Amino acid sequence: MKICWANTDNFDEAEIVIVGIPDESKSHALRKGTSEAPHKIREIASIRDTYKRGDDVSLGLPLEGITKKVYDFGNIERSQISETIEKIISKSKIPISIGGDHSLTIELIKSVSKKYGKLSLVYFDAHPDFVSSIHGYYGSVISDVLPFIDTKTSILVGIRTPEKEEIDNIKKYDLQVITPFDIIRNGIQKTEEIILDKIGKNTYISLDMDAIDSAFAPGVSVPVPLGLRNIEVVLLLKSIAKRGICGLDIMEVCPNYDIKDRTSHLASRIISEVISSAK
Ligand SMILES: [Mn+2]
Question: How many domains does the structure of the chain reveal?
Answer without folding.
Answer: 1
